[in-house]
Design brief:
Elements (H helix, E strand, L loop, with lengths): L15 H54 L1 H17 L5 E6 L5 E4 L11 E9 L14 E9 L5 E6 L2 H51 L17 H50 L5 H28 L8 E4 H18 L3 E6 L4 E4 L1 H18 L5 E9 L2 E9 L5 H7 L18 H11 L3 E7 L2 E8 L8
Parallel strand pairs: 7-9
Antiparallel strand pairs: 1-2, 1-5, 3-4, 4-5, 6-8, 9-10, 10-12, 11-12
Helix pairs in contact: 1-2, 1-3, 4-5, 5-9, 6-7, 7-9
């Protein structure tokens, strides 16, 4: 079985947040190490370049002394430079001035290295302890940059520079590099641990809330710490709370729907049961009793069909037969049917239907939505009151509205009316199943429209607003 590094970490360090913190720490450490290596190389290269340039400059300067002032002046100058360099603690420069026959004329070196070429160029030469004067005992041997030049009289001059100071600088740079890498690693781990604990605290709060909700405490919500300037976790909590509010509302509505279904179906089922028990006791079944049972069963079937249709409309996978529908012609045909029914009840009928309004939709569903609104208006409007049926189009907005008097509701009741099986308490004895406006709302939504209910000047208005563009269904 494959073993991971994180398997050996303590419990809290095995979390995703802490693993990310460790990865971040490793990345920063490697990045710091790379930066320090580059800095180390740059510093070393710069110092060596400066030493080489200085050696070449000093060599040419001494050459000018020999050319202009003579050999003795150069010898005096070299002896003085040797004494000055000997007095310095960390800066050692060595000279060797040989005559044409290789006699030592001046300097602090004992002999001329074989690999030195007197061409004025700087080259790294290996100098050992026996190459130095006996007075220079505290100098480390090694590869030193050196430059040599041959003069016109056959004599030659060698200048070498020890790199003790450079090595000390390199050692110090290496120490700083190691210190910074370790410091960055420790600091990044500490910051990662603090950051991880902060993240874990927020995640644990969300998990705790989820566990409480799982145990049935549906009122629990994710606590919001900083609503004025929310971070990603606060936004996640806001969305989770909104989702929980929606779920809780849907569960309440489901419970209410279940109660309404039980209430609405209990009465017809009870009547059918009573009628069947009465028929069982009779030797002969009268047509009237049979018609009562059939009517109750038909109402039950109608209710269940409405429930199924509502479910299909609210399903996102529903396939509707959309085509171009002459909405004006449809409203006119329904008006001709309902005008007589309304006037027979002594209700005043008013209609304003604009011509040649066409939309993309399902003709059968649109007809059902209009019929449901008309039936609803007819049911709650008394004789002497009025129903107003209108269809109009302004720019890209098409509005179909039905107004009637006789209904007085609060804003909260208006919101509840479009929920399944919701009816006015004093209307439960009337015909209907409380699904009419729910179906209208679902049909409107299927046509990218919206149903708006309002009360103004003691008139109840149900209005469907269509837009110019509709979804196409295959």
């Amino acid at each position: 079985m494959k073993t991971l590094f994180t398997d050996y970490l303590p419990g809290s360090w095995k979390t995703l947040a802490m693993r990310l913190a460790i990865r971040q720490s490793i990345f920063l450490s490697l990045l710091t190490m790379l930066a320090m290596l580059v800095l180390y190389w740059l510093v070393s290269s710069f110092v060596l370049v400066q030493i080489s340039s200085d050696l070449e400059y000093s060599l040419h300067k001494l050459h000018n002394i020999e050319k202009q002032e003579g050999q003795q002046a150069l010898i005096q100058r070299l002896n003085g430079l040797s004494e000055e360099n000997f007095a310095r603690e960390h800066s050692h420069r060595y000279y060797l001035y040989l005559s044409e026959d290789n006699r030592i004329l001046a300097g602090s070196l004992r002999h001329w290295p074989d690999e030195v070429i007197a061409n004025g160029k700087v080259k790294n030469i290996l100098f050992e302890e026996e190459d130095l004067s006996k007075d220079w005992t505290d100098v480390d041997e090694g590869l030193w940059p050196a430059a040599a030049m041959k003069f016109s009289d056959g004599s030659k001059l060698l200048i070498a520079q020890s790199i003790d100071t450079t090595e000390q600088l390199n050692d110090f740079t290496m120490f700083v590099m190691i210190f910074l890498v370790v410091a960055v690693t420790l600091i990044s781990l500490l910051l990662g641990w603090i950051q991880g604990q902060t993240i874990l605290k927020k995640i644990e709060h969300i998990n705790k809330t989820a566990r409480n909700i799982e145990l049935g405490e549906l009122h629990q919500r994710v606590k919001q710490e900083n609503l004025s300037n929310p971070d990603e976790f606060d936004e996640l909590g806001i969305h989770l709370n909104q989702m929980l509010d929606t779920i809780e509302r849907l569960m309440r509505e489901m419970k209410q729907v279940s109660q309404n279904i039980a209430h609405d179906l209990r009465k017809p089922l009870t009547r059918v049961q009573v009628q069947l028990e009465a028929l069982q006791a009779k030797s002969v079944i009268s047509p009237e009793d049979l018609n009562v049972c059939l009517a109750d069963l038909a109402n039950l079937s109608k209710t269940f069909n409405a429930i199924l249709q509502l479910g299909r409309l609210e399903s996102s996978n529903s396939q509707l037969a959309f085509s171009t529908v002459d909405l004006s012609l449809l409203c006119q045909s329904l008006e001709s049917v309902y005008r007589d029914m309304v006037e027979e009840k002594g209700i005043i009928w008013q209609s304003t239907i604009q011509e040649d309004i066409k939309i993309n939709g399902d003709r059968q569903l649109l007809a059902q939505a209009i019929i449901n609104l008309l039936e609803n208006a007819l049911r709650y409007t008394q004789a002497g009151e009025s129903i107003r049926f209108s269809l109009k189009q302004v720019d890209s907005l098409t509005s179909l509205s039905i107004e009637n008097t006789g209904i007085m509701l609060s804003d909260n009741q208006l919101t509840e009316l479009t929920k399944p099986f919701v009816r006015l308490d004093n209307a439960r004895s009337n015909e209907g199943n409380g699904l009419g406006l729910s179906l209208v709302k679902a049909i409107a939504h299927a046509h990218s429209a919206d149903l708006k209910l309002s009360i103004n000047d003691n008139r109840f208005t149900a209005q469907i607003n269509f837009v110019s563009a509709f979804k196409q269904y295959g």
